[in-house]
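The pair is listed for reference:
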Amino acid sequence: MFETSLLKNKRILITGGGSGLGAAMGRRFLALGAELVICGRKLERLEATAREMRDEIGGKVITIACDIRDGAAVDGMMDAIWREAPLDILVNNAAATFIAQSEHLSFRAVDAILATTLHGAMYCTLAAGRRWIEANQRGVVLSILSTSTITGRAFTVPSAMAKSALLAMTRSLAVEWGPKGIRTVAIAPGPFPTAGATGQLRPEGRDEGWTSRNPLGRTGEHGELADLASFLVSDHAAYINGEMVVIDGGAHLRSSGAEDLLAWTEAQWAAQRAARSRA
């Protein structure tokens, strides 16, 4: 199935595509024949990633600096993309989160997470879907969620709320837009370590025994998620609509992954808040 032409002639936008899982998916899509557009807030990082992709794989990679928290900026980005050629696939990958005791969350901190993770993904989905429908064009939206949509997750409540809302969007639009030729699908990854997520969710002092508690005894490899994403956005998955696929080694069947934080002392939480304020 993963022949080099799997995604040939597919134009794919990945939000947060300059690093982490977004970049891993981008590399795989590119190797399978796709044309790539990656967006994020830091153009320098995007361009560095794009150069690496072109050097390693070849193909076409376009970079666009865009703060997806701004609906007008999202519309402007989509206009710029469509001026050259329409998208075929949107990957909602950009997200924000950090661990915190919920009673200490400020309204501003909550908004910072919801703005990127929920509003940004919704803005991008609406902007792409509107253009597909107006042109009577088929399309696919893949949203990267988390297993908190199943278990909930203590100490990352705004993120769990945002991801759950995006699952509702995925299921709702599957019905509303399916007849228009637009599929909506989602992936719920478990532990796939990245520099950004590790720094936010696995600070010093956390119990690192969570890997051994995974039924498969390990974390996920980026290529495994990239392969799953490639399948779901490809024509081979044309009859999958409104579904979320979990890829976590079965970890969510045992816990939400946040239980070790229940044992943290107030001093540990104070140190975490101080570290976050310096970031």
